[in-house]
Known about the structure:
The protein is an alpha/beta fold. 43% of the residues lie in helices and 22% in strands. It has 12 helices and 14 strands. The strands form 3 sheets. Strands 5-6-8-9-10-11-12-13 form an 8-stranded mixed β-barrel. A hairpin with a 2-residue loop joins strand 1 (5-7) and strand 2 (10-12). It starts with a strand and ends in a 9-residue tail after the last helix. The mean pLDDT is 88.
Amino acid sequence: xxxxxxxxxxxxxxxxxxxxxxxxxxxxxxxxxxxxxxxxxxxxxxxxxxxxxxxxxxxxxxxxxxxxxxxxxxxxxxxxxxxxxxxxxxxxxxxxxxxxxxxxxxxxxxxxxxxxxxxxxxxxxxxxxxxxxxxxxxxxxxxxxxxxxxxxxxxxxxxxxxxxxxxxxxxxxxxxxxxxxxxxxxxxxxxxxxxxxxxxxxxxxxxxxxxxxxxxxxxxxxxxxxxxxxxxxxxxxxxxxxxxxxxxxxxxxxxxxxxxxxxxxxxxxxxxxxxxxxxxxxxxxxxxxxxxxxxxxxxxxxxxxxxxxxxxxxxxxxxxxx
Length: 322
């Protein structure tokens, strides 16, 4: 199967995924053997290349857990168990709150708090990424109506969403119905999403920017083609990955990388933010580079919508941790 298939003047490379289950070691009847071979095939396909995998007992357990989580997620979305929590983003030069980043919060009755990364992965695998995003965006915009107009809203844009040609219009309609100015909305996307389909991403992001929303490149500095993306895509902001920021005060190399990334962003006319600020040492080191925005544990914990609204209604200012 490795030999290309010639159709007309074009070569087409064919891949193959093979899952294997044995009788009697893996199963005692043909139906169970086929089911377990299919599980092994799922693992082979997950590797993203031609592969052959034998069934292992642990695979069955993982598949059952995945199916259980998909059912639980579907129920959670239908019953509004997943709500947005908000992480403050600070203007490092002016010393005041600039906005919030939305993070999905799911407290499962049995599993406890489900990490956002796991939640996004399950939603993507189950074909529910659009539903999850729409609900989070709608809830975020509803909450933001109670905030000052200058406070910005950031939300992650998962790769699967870029395949929807109606994405920009749908987001714009949600924002408009909530009475939020589109300029307050910032959509964060990772380099991996751009790499998967450059032309698709370019079209989708251009449509979003045309609606007045801002585009930020998340986890900047960890991708293999960051400079290419900065040149190719119309971006408004880069967010330096937390792995560099957390090591600034202990590793000279990380401090130099952060300073270089800030300089690069400014040279291209982009706003620069950094994640992972945990203490005053990190804050001082980052501020010295000229980075405009920062977020992390130093600025406080995640807050739900009511806590943020109460903060503003009381006329209080979010203070940095000492």
